[in-house]
Structure formats: structure tokens, C-alpha cells
Amino acid sequence: MKKIISFFLYFLLSSMYCFAQLLPSIGLNVAPNDADSICPIITAQGAGAVPGFMPGDTVPDFKLYTLNGDSVQLSQVLQQGIPVLLISSSYTCPVFRGKINNINQVDSIYQGQLAVYIIYTVEAHPDIDVSPYSGNVWTTSSNVSAGILYRQPKTYGERKVVIDSLLSNNYIRPDILLDGPCNEWWSNYGTEPNSATLIRPNGKVFTFQKWFNKAPENIFCEIDSLLNTNSGLCNMFGNGGTFSLVTDSTANDVPGSVLSIHATINNLSSTENVVVNIQRGTAIMPSTWLTALCTDVCYPPSTNSVQVTIPPSATQTFIFYFYTDSILASGMAPVRFRNANMPSNEIIQRYYGSTLSTGITTENLEVVELYPNPTSGMVFIEQDKQYEWLIILDAIGKFISRNKLNEFGSTAINVNSFPPGVYYFQLEGRNRIVRKLIKY
Fold first, then answer.
1. Which of 251, 289, 368, 438 could form a disulfide with 285 if both were Cys (CB 3.0 to 4.6 A apart)?
2. Burial annotation 356-380 (CB, 10 A radius, 16+ → b, else e)
3. In this structure, what DSSP letter does residue 180 have?
4. What are the angstrom distances between the C-alpha of 328 and each of 260, 277, 289, 354, 398?
5. How far is Cα 72 from Cα 196, in angstroms, rounded to an integer?
6. In terms of DSSP bridges, do strands 115-120 and 175-178 run parallel, antiparallel, or are they unpaired?
7. Which residue ranges make up each domain of the chain?
8. pLDDT averaged over consecutive 10-residue blocks of the chain (440 residues)?
9. Which residues are CB-neighbours of 89 under 8 A, at least 6 positions away?
């Protein structure tokens, strides 16, 4: 009898100990209502990004819910004595969509040995709305081609609608857990759009991948190592590949707009990775303009170089941005693409941006009034139904909001919450014009 009691106490203490390894919960106590509003979303680049947990870190507990309202609590899953793999996602993230087959493979191969969950977070590339990974509208050409055009959900219920569409068009084996209305998981476990966090049964991170199973990392190698198994998919490639570049070179738009130039980097090898260093050179442009490099995410203007590893026969998208001002001007910035393991495989591309040709006529300017200007709160726009939309940009051309204009009469815009400074009001319709507003 004493042995039974001792075993029971040991089991109870062991369970408590396992639970106690996690940090306090960041998840939810009850299932959110569909009408619950999504909290403001940070710009997850540069200093605004939240890093994921590193190997050896203890993770916080959480309770999140499936589309059907079933709850999953991390501490309870870990008490089963198996590791947990958490993968962040959103339907508008092309990288995530390209990894669905890999995710299904992981869930199938390690069934019973590993608990796999997809955490659905903020939309990476919403339609019309600003992307949290660039600070401006970044819908992506692949989303447009596939018709995956969803705005950033404003409520928990709207987030469920996007997931329902995802599941209607894709077979996904693991359970999908919805992040909470205030994006609790995303803002604690890391703001990367398609990360992977592999957690030991004791609540400590075994490995963290900023990008799930993206070269040079291999998720199958990590899981095989943790479980001491052999999936047969731990394939490591060398870095002896070469690359080519397919790119546009110029972009034109109105003053105050964000100019984007698109490119594709192609790995020409079918058996080797290629590692490409991308470095921005000294730009010749107005001192008030800024530029930025974008691969899978957009980097802040202060980032001058990035590195990408491209798997065999794969491609990597690249975008070069010019953030312009209100003055008619043009600029040029050189970017060097160099093979890290074969310096002779190098391409120097010059990118040109211009706002010299605006399409603005005197007639167009006369039919729009913006007042009062300067202002501390409300601003009114009078126009004669030429313009349908108002896009507000800050002083460096970063997207702030998109507003529907009244067809007749005035449209009131409240800028009371804006920090003092210069803003650009870009009106779009049959024509496009830009007006400068000063907020004091």
C-alpha cells in the first residue's frame, strides 16, 4: 500500500513539475467571441520585431482554440511526454502556402511521437491594408495571381473566415489554432510569418527556425535528432550552386509614393544550395528619399545587406523600394548580388526610381480642397467626384491608412492621433494627386 501511495505521489509531483517548467500563460481563459476586435498590429520589422525563443529557453504556457472552438493548452499536451512543434502561419503568406506539403509530411511521419500545431496569426500580406512586414501595402504578385486577396481581419470572427477559406482550398493535417484577438501568441513567440518552434517535453526549446524548413535549415534533421529516429528526409545540400537574376530596373509614380521594383533570383543548380549576399551600394537620390531591401520580409532602410540561401532549382523573390517625398525628383541605387562561395558569380544591378512624370494637371489641382492646413485634429477634403480613395502616407512614404472618399461634399478625416509632422494625402480615382498636410 505504501508503495502505491509513494508511486501516486511521485506521479503527481512529476506532473506538477512538468507543468511548472513553463512560464506563465499568455493565452486565453475562455474562447473569444467572433465580434471581439483584433488589437492594433505592430510593424514587425527592425526594432519592432519580436524575436522567437532560442534553444534552451523555457516557453510560456498558452491556451488557444481551433476553428470549431476546441481548446488546446500547451502544458497539457507536454504532459503526454512528447515534444511539440508550433508553426506560425497566415493564408496570405506565400512562403507558408509553399510549405503545406512539408507540414503534412512532418505530421504524418512523426505521428504519435510529436504533436504538431499550426498557429494562425496576423495576415502577412493583406490586400489593401498595410503589411506588418514592410510598413506599406505589400499584397505580392503570387497572392494576386492566386486570388488570395484578404484584408487584415478586424475581428476574431473575420480571422476564422479566412482560415475557413484556407481549409476549403488546402488539405492540412495538423490542427490550426487561432491566435487571440490581441495576437498574444504572435507577440510572445515571435513575429516571424512562418516560424517553427520545436519544444521538448520539459517545456524548453530544442530548436527555433525563423522560417519553417527553409534552407539551410532542415526540420527533419532537427526532429530526427531530438527523437533519435531516421525519417530518411534529413537531406543536407552543399552550397556550390550558381544563380541568375531576372529583374526590372525602373519604377515611376507620383511624389510621396513608394516605388517598388521586383526581381527573382534563380538557383541554377539541381543538386546544390546557393548562398547569395545582397548588398545595397551608395544611392544617388534626394537626401529625403529612403530605400529598402525586401526578400521574404522587408528590412528597415538602415539595413544595407542581407543573405539568402536558395535550395536546388528554387527561386527567391526580391523587391527594391524607393520611399519618395513630395518633390518631383529621381534617384538611382546600385545593388550587388554575389555568390558567397563563388565570387565570380556576381551581378551589379542599378535600380532607378522617378516621380518626375506625375500626370497631375492644373485642372486636377483646382478641384480639390484640403482644409484646415495645418491642423491639429480634423481635416476636410472637398472634391468633385473625381477621386474615390484617400491613401495617407507619413513623411517617408510609409502607408498609414486607406479611406473611402465621399462622392459629393466633404470627407472628414481625424488626424488627432497622428504625431506632429508632415503627411501626404494621395487621392486616387480617374486621376491621382498628392497633397501635403502639416499636423501640429
1. 289
2. eebeeeeebeeebebeeeebeeebe
3. P
4. 17, 33, 11, 8, 18
5. 18
6. parallel
7. 21-227, 243-354, 362-439
8. 43 43 90 95 81 96 96 96 97 96 97 97 93 86 87 96 96 97 96 96 96 94 97 93 93 86 94 97 92 88 94 93 88 96 95 72 52 88 79 75 81 90 78 77
9. 96, 118, 119, 120, 121, 176, 193, 194
β-strand partners of 291: 322
Fold of 21-227: Glutaredoxin (3.40.30)
How many other C-beta atoms are found inside a 10 Å radius of the C-beta of residue 337? Answer: 21
Place of cell 511539440: 84
> 276 near 284, Cβ under 8 Å?
no
- Cβ neighbours, 10 Å, residue 414: 10
What is the value of pTM for the model shown?
0.73
Between the CA of residue 332 and those of 280, 352, 416, what are the distances in Å? 11, 4, 36
Q: Among 1.10.10.10, 3.40.50.2300, 2.30.40.10, 2.60.40.3080, what is the CATH number of 362-439? A: 2.60.40.3080
Distance CA 220, CA 232 (A): 8
What is the C-alpha separation between 19 and 203, in angstroms, rounded? 8
Q: What is the C-alpha to C-alpha distance for residues 252 and 372, in angstroms, rounded to an integer? A: 30
CB of 137 closer than 8 Å to CB of 152: no
Q: What gap in Å lies between CA 49 and CA 52, rounded to an integer?
A: 10
User: How far, in Å, CA of 375 to CA of 357, rounded?
Assistant: 29
Taking a C-beta distance cutoff of 8 angstroms, is the pair 425, 434 a contact?
yes
Name the architecture of domain 243-354: Sandwich (2.60)
Q: Are 290 and 301 in contact (CB under 8 A)?
A: yes
List the 84-89 sheet strands across, edge first.
71-73, 63-65, 175-178, 115-120, 84-89, 196-199, 205-209
